[in-house]
């Protein structure tokens, strides 16, 4: 399926990622109150409104480069008016089949900004996994959970979105 241009991965200026990553590392090491200029430089370049604490929490799950790239992507995507069920399914399909972490993060950002953020978790875990009798903690194999993009969209529209088409 062809997606509208606003639903395709945006182009980001990857040339500034090393400079932003250096800022992230510098901010992380500076004491509170001493990183205002660096935080302002990062926020201006990215279009974000992060605070000092945001830079102290990135390292647990990603590198400084991944943090910078993720924020560039997050602020480059915009909502698409009138997003349809079919478009949500296609975004889910692409997120689920991509081998590139950057592409996965981009499709996640596109889903979030278009009101389908709840579906991202359902790619990996079923809704209400903690209350399903016999779920993982009681021996169910994670491999048994393999939803289709259509199934995730069905759950999403049942609880959150109402498709226009």
Structural description of this entry:
By secondary structure, the chain is mainly alpha-helical. The protein folds into 2 domains: about 15-75, no CATH class; about 85-160, no CATH class. It is about 50% helix and about 0% strand. It is built from 8 helices and no strands.
List the helices and strands and how they pair.
Elements: H1 17-29, H2 36-46, H3 52-56, H4 64-76, H5 85-97, H6 101-113, H7 118-124, H8 149-159
How many whole angstroms does the radius of gyration measure? 18 Å
> Given the structure, what is the number of helices?
8
Average residue-wise pLDDT: 84
- SS-based structural class? mainly alpha
Q: Could you give the count of β-strands?
A: 0
Q: How do the SSEs run, as a string of H and E?
A: HHHHHHHH
| Helical content class | 40-55%
Distance between the termini: 15 Å
Strand content: under 5%
Q: Can you tell me the number of structural domains?
A: 2
Unreliable sequence segments:
131-136
Q: What kind of sheet is the major sheet?
A: none
Q: Label the overall shape.
A: elongated
């Amino acid at each position: 399926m062809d997606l509208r241009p606003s639903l395709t991965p945006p182009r980001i200026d990857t040339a500034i990622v090393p400079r932003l990553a250096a800022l992230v590392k510098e901010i992380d090491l500076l004491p509170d109150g001493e990183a205002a200029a660096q935080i302002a430089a990062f926020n201006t370049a990215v279009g974000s409104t992060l605070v000092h604490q945001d830079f102290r929490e990135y390292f647990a799950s990603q590198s400084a480069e991944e943090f910078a790239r993720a924020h560039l992507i997050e602020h480059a995507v915009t909502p698409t008016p009138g997003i349809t069920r079919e478009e949500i399914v296609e975004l889910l399909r692409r997120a689920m089949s991509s081998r590139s972490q950057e592409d996965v993060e981009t499709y996640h950002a596109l889903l979030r900004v278009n009101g389908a953020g709840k579906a991202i978790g359902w790619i990996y875990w079923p809704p209400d996994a903690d209350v399903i009798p016999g779920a993982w903690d009681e021996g169910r194999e994670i491999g048994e959970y393999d939803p289709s993009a259509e199934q995730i969209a069905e759950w999403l529209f049942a609880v959150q979105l109402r498709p226009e088409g």
